[in-house]
Write a structure and sequence with these properties.
Number of helices: 5
Radius of gyration: 15 Å
Shape: globular
CATH superfamily: Gcn5-related N-acetyltransferase (GNAT)
Bound molecules: coenzyme A
Strand content: 25-35%
Mean pLDDT: 93
Helix content: 25-40%
Order of helices and strands: EHHHEEEHEHEEE
Structural class: alpha+beta
CATH class: Alpha Beta
CATH topology: Aminopeptidase
Largest sheet: 8 strands, mixed
Low-confidence stretches: none
Distance between the termini: 40 Å
CATH architecture: 3-Layer(aba) Sandwich
Number of domains: 1
Length: about 180
């Protein structure tokens, strides 16, 4: 399996994987619903970030010539601190879950973000992201989302504090 940057011809497969994988979310955890704009799908968010040139990472996992996983990252702010890398969406083809594809995408993303960002942040299931070093921080949040689902991995010694401000492409109503 190869983790690489997206190329134009990956875009339909990325849309399909993100759409298919996210259909599983309501059964796994409803947490993202707390922050998601119902009018914008995760696949739309990727397209909107791409259209605004806001994807700082757009990684695909390729296996046997097929795209089987995808991870996006965009710039974010936490409180007044710029230069955080926001990971998401992360999606793996459902038929390929549990093979380490998500972990490989996460490892590459964290490695790359370390070079350019203060830290990485995301909204997701702490039972999954804890294994990559992410954790919740007192005072770190996104709107009404339960705080345990808002997680960060600071690359310096400073704990993140404040609202995790997503790129406008996410369509969230956030106080800047
Ligand atoms: C979450 C996701 C990206 C993980 O991808 P993956 O390639 O299956 O993950 P890996 O193979 O690297 O890791 C699998 C491990 O993670 C665990 N895991 C996966 N999702 C989990 C979750 N929501 N909570 C807790 N553990 C989870 C599996 O049980 C497995 O555990 P094990 O290593 O102890 O056997 C994939 O399940 C997916 O696309 N899910 C639907 C979309 C989604 O939830 N995206 C994340 C948005 S927050």
């Amino acid at each position: 399996m190869l983790i690489r940057n997206e190329i134009d011809s990956d875009i339909p497969a990325i849309r399909a994987i993100v759409t298919e994988a996210m259909l599983m979310l309501p059964q796994t955890s409803g947490t993202e619903a707390n922050i998601t704009n119902p009018d914008i799908t995760d696949a739309d968010i990727v397209d909107r970030l791409r259209a605004e040139d806001a994807l700082i990472l757009s990684l695909v996992a390729e296996d046997g010539g097929d795209v089987v996983g995808y991870l996006a990252a965009s710039m974010a702010r936490i409180g007044v601190e710029c230069d955080w890398g926001l990971i998401g969406p992360l999606a793996v083809l459902p038929s390929r879950h549990g093979e380490g594809i998500g972990s490989a995408l996460m490892a590459e993303a964290v490695l790359r973000l370390r070079a350019t960002c203060k830290g990485a942040a995301l909204v997701g299931d702490p039972r999954y992201y804890g294994r990559f070093g992410f954790s919740a921080f007192s005072g770190l949040g996104v709107g009404d989302c339960p705080p345990e689902f808002v997680q960060a991995l600071p690359f310096d010694a400073v704990d993140p504090q404040g609202e995790l401000i997503h790129h406008p492409a996410f369509g969230l109503k956030q106080q800047g």
